[in-house]
Specification:
By secondary structure, this protein is of the alpha+beta class. It has a single domain (5-87), classed as Rieske Iron-sulfur Protein (3-layer Sandwich). The chain is built from two helices and five strands, in the order βααββββ. A hairpin with a 2-residue loop joins strand 4 (60-67) and strand 5.
């Protein structure tokens, strides 16, 4: 039985009129734009639980968590406090 992995396209996550360049990226802009259009595994489904999981994709910090039966991937930054969402859970 194959392992189920979560695959994401950075372009689909970080898109507002085109892929945004992540803070602190480690790739040249041209290379990042090419790689951002591809799908990349970031974790296994079995590793996503009740606590938010911090992952990095192409230099972009992301958080993976379950919302009901759905798995959500977002930028790992709280817009209100500026801290990583992967540091805690829902209250």
């Amino acid at each position: 039985m194959p392992r189920e992995a979560i695959n994401v396209s950075n372009a689909s996550i970080l898109t507002v009129g085109g892929p945004l360049l992540p803070r602190g990226r480690t790739f040249e802009t041209a290379d990042w734009r090419i790689l951002a259009g591809c799908w990349h595994p970031v974790t296994l489904v079995r590793d996503v639980g009740a606590k938010p999981l911090g992952v990095t994709l192409l230099g972009a910090p992301l958080v993976v968590y379950k919302a009901g039966k759905k798995i959500v991937i977002a930028e790992d930054l709280c817009p209100h406090s500026g801290v990583p969402l992967s540091m805690g859970g829902r209250r």
